[in-house]
């Protein structure tokens, strides 16, 4: 409508805020990572002119991340943790989302509330809950000993990869279920009925109709949990004290809080961010392609 | 100066690669019920929105009572709109919805109360003031939308397919109401629709639009009986089109040749030579018994199909000239007089056949496949 | 040519056709169940409810232990409110660290709502209606925080406050600035979703009836946006209260630590049930606010439910497709 200046004027404050406190900070990371370190004070000296950028620290980081580098193990471990967690989340989350979307009937509203509930419960609280349960004298050990699965209490929190993965799954799975539910809920019942009408068994109707149509939801959920998971450092710290289970995020955390070497930390952050950007673009392309296949329309 | 006079002058609207409205000229004197008729995408809604002010024209003028309002914001024009889905404000009740425009004009409270009351009377919804739009039926919502627009005494009322969301019976009842409302209030109604029956029923005059331009303007009877282009002939009702060769043409009568048969048709002042199409409406074809005395404008034919639509009977015949024609016979209660596969004789009365120059536009796509029994029966 | 079909004969029961079924007895029903105990809906139902239990019960247990009479978080003794206000040293009420954490969390969340919601609403309106150059870029900038990992944001904010905007030191101000930055996008997405479902029709109707764009905004659009604005405020509160990474990275220690930071620190040390208590308080507050937001949404959109829009809008914010 008229008054063309009105709407951009509305958008201005928000955009300005985001530019100053979101875009500019990225530049600060670049400036520090591609800067130098004062040899006397061990302080980072950021370089703001792109022409003067020093890639020394960046290549140092890449070396450490490469095969044989000191961070290679951590890197591989992170990827393994994330992939296994994603797989488990899908394994558990898909049936739940599917049931809620298609079979829940009159329970649907209640189940939906119960599934959304964890999103509003603080992540820390949910981790705290399991830390309590996994103590040496906690409920998990008590129950397992009572049922004679274990003969003595097991140390779950002392540095176990499976505990970390378990915690990641527990923590992130609600963020997968919701988009998955949304995608499955949207699938028109008549598509399935048509498939059955044309002779498909229940399983093959699922395989040939529901699964492809829910691809968008799977991808969306996968994006929503794997990107943050790559940057997670607090989960391993909470459920496992050990350096044997650290993830890449822990490395960054260390370089900022554990004996500050911000320059390396910044450089590592950039590499990780670049990696996630590539991942993000790949996801976007897949979603785009899946949308074309199913004719779904986006809302963002 | 007539109140509510609209003049569109070379009005054009272009969206990226699409020309929605292509330099149309239109003059509507005040007080008329005027319809813009055409299929989706023909530009009628865009034209309406430009007159209302929601779209800015690419070029051209919109003269409202002599003043060009093409670049005036919508809230400053003396034109009001009834939207397709009514757009009643959900957070206001009926009374506040109708009063909205008056409040914006800062009228005194007493005056607002009085005018809202009168508007409710006009649309027969007294007593509904406190209701919310979600508590109203479709027809009631439409009437509130009308009241809301009319209470401001606009010079022109724009209606954007307002009856589209209602069921058939309600629609017919409201068509009559709208027409009598317009006559009562006396302002110009500009009505947009794709339903040709609606346009024919309600309008004083109508314009048939196609792909951004106007094909024909005229009173319903003229447009229906005297289509000037192939498109108009085919869009309004069923048209029986036949290919023919002009033998002789002048303003009093034309003679055409169709596969060995010669027909006399109405005269035309268009310049027609060579190949042309002739058109006749189904209800004008007279069916005579096989073996009736032959004469001018008579063609033998075979009955291909008979369709019973209640108030009338469609008889699809294949003329000796090779073309399939549809004739419409009123149902006089005597059973179905024609049997599939029997011969008949067609009489095409001279003043019912019209000549259209070949190449006068394209026929509308998807029209004329299977005539809509409802439209035919009522037409 | 459609001829008139012969009237079909009534299907006679034959030996080939389906046998007449006897009335189902308890025995046959049990047999039916047994034959297919893994019938898809049943299996899925079990998995779903098992998931729900696994997801929620641990938290309920943690809440339960916040009321434990002893210092143990793992062995239940009896009900007591000692960790909330009873214990003169270690309860939430008396322990300054815990108290400050609670206050700080509410402070940040409150400030976040007061700043991010107006900014976000304005931004949503601007982006939804802006047609010109720059709108695409602005939209992209707005979406970015939603997909940026928190640690990247934490690092970048820490560095920008250390090297560029050095007048901002770590502490409450920095934390607020950080919270608002990641919250704005949530507000925009929620409000924009609502704007999208409202459409332009009401603004056009208002303009048609004589309202200038600003007046139309105030008298028609904002009232209709109220549910989305309230819902986004509830969401912002929740994500601010839950935030750990940004709060930690921009904290200057001590009283600027929030509840999640306290919980984090405590789980790595030897915590008392008071940490359960503080977590419970935060959780209940958030849930109350979210519920209030949701109920407000339903209240304000009650008129539209006949048209069938309702709760999908609220959950639709999570739909990424």
Description of the molecule:
The complex is a heterotrimer of chains A (300), B (379) and C (321). Chain A contains 13 helices and 2 strands, in the order αββαααααααααααα. Chain A has 300 residues and is mainly alpha-helical. Chain A has one domain: MetI-like (MetI-like fold). Chain A has a two-stranded antiparallel ribbon. Chain A is globular, with a radius of gyration of 24 Å. In chain B, 24% of the residues lie in helices and 34% in strands. By secondary structure, chain B is of the alpha+beta class. Chain C has 321 residues and is mainly alpha-helical. Chain C has a domain of 221 residues: MetI-like fold, CATH 1.10.3720. The longest helix of chain C has 34 residues. Chain C starts with 25 loop residues before the first helix and ends in a 5-residue tail after the last helix. Chains A and C meet through helix 1, helix 3, helix 4, helix 5 and helix 7 of A and helix 2, helix 4, helix 5, helix 6 and helix 7 of C.
- Pair with the most extensive interface? A-C, 105 and 99 residues
Output the strand order for the largest sheet of chain B.
6-7-8-3-9-10
By CATH, the architecture of chain A is named Orthogonal Bundle
Using the coordinates above, name the CATH class of chain A.
Answer: Mainly Alpha
How many strand units of chain A? 2
Number of helix segments of chain A? Answer: 13
**Whole-number average pLDDT of chain A?**
86
Radius of gyration of chain B: 24 Å
CATH superfamily of the largest domain in chain B: P-loop containing nucleotide triphosphate hydrolases
Distance between the termini of chain B: 37 Å
- What is the percent of helical residues of chain A? over 70%
Number of helices of chain B: 9
| Count of discrete structural domains of chain A | 1
- Order of strands across the main sheet of chain A: 1-2
Strand proportion of chain B: 25-35%
Radius of gyration of chain A: 24 Å
CATH superfamily of chain A: MetI-like
The ordered H/E elements of chain B are EEEHEEEHHHEHEHEEHHEEEEEEEEEEH
Mass-distribution shape of chain B: elongated
Strand content of chain A: under 5%
